[in-house]
Amino acid sequence: MTASPHTHRVAVGAYIFHDGRVLLLKRVNSPVAFAPPGGRLNVEEDPLSGLRREVKEETGLDIAIIGLAHVWFGSMDGRQPTLLCVNYLAEAANSAVVLSEEHSDFMWASREDIASRRVVTLTDDGFGYQPSDILESFDRYEKLAGKTRGHTG
User: Fold this and answer.
1) Cβ neighbours, 10 Å, residue 84
2) CA gap 10, 22 in Å, rounded
3) Where in the chain are the domains?
4) pTM of this prediction?
5) In the CATH scheme, what architecture does the domain 9-145 have?
């Protein structure tokens, strides 16, 4: 059987927690919205290595991966190619973010910030991370973080 040269693009993302808050980065390119750090995998790159690379490139942070948050399939803005995105839960030892040129701003958002929608809004054309996905990441993190303390994933 011959492998097809056409397959899904695969991306990874991280809901990174520190002191009860999650890190969101404001994208420079479409969709211009606050979202967790992440990006596409390189050819033959495994997801966890790719996640660590993307987070380091975009934030300067080293992370401990806690577990899986969720898997998403679709187009980020309705115009870009379809992605299969695997999102993980992670912790950062500190909050000293150094942004790459891919982002213009960042925030460490609390559950209340997300629930009230004070800081996370969809882009004008309706695309972006849903507040419900981010709130769900808080729930999953709280369940998993206590079980994996000391894990350096």
Assistant:
1) 15
2) 23
3) 9-145
4) 0.85
5) Alpha-Beta Complex (3.90)
The length of the chain, given as a count of residues: 153
84 is written with which tokens? 């299969």
Query: 120-133: per-residue pLDDT in tens?
Result: 554 544 445 678 88
Q: Are strands 9-18 and 83-92 parallel, antiparallel or unpaired?
A: parallel
Q: What share of the chain is helix, strand, coil (3-state, %, to 5)?
A: 20, 35, 45
Residues 14-67 pLDDT 10s: 999 999 999 999 988 877 788 899 999 999 999 999 999 999 999 999 999 999
DSSP class per residue in 41-53: PPTT--HHHHHHH
| Cα–Cα distance, 90 to 52 (Å, whole number) | 10
- Name the phi and psi angles at 55, rounded to 5: -65, -45
d(CA 38, CA 20): 20
Taking CA atoms, 94 is separated from 40, 64, 91, 131, in Å, by 25, 11, 9, 24
31 and 127 Cβ atoms separated by less than 8 Å: yes
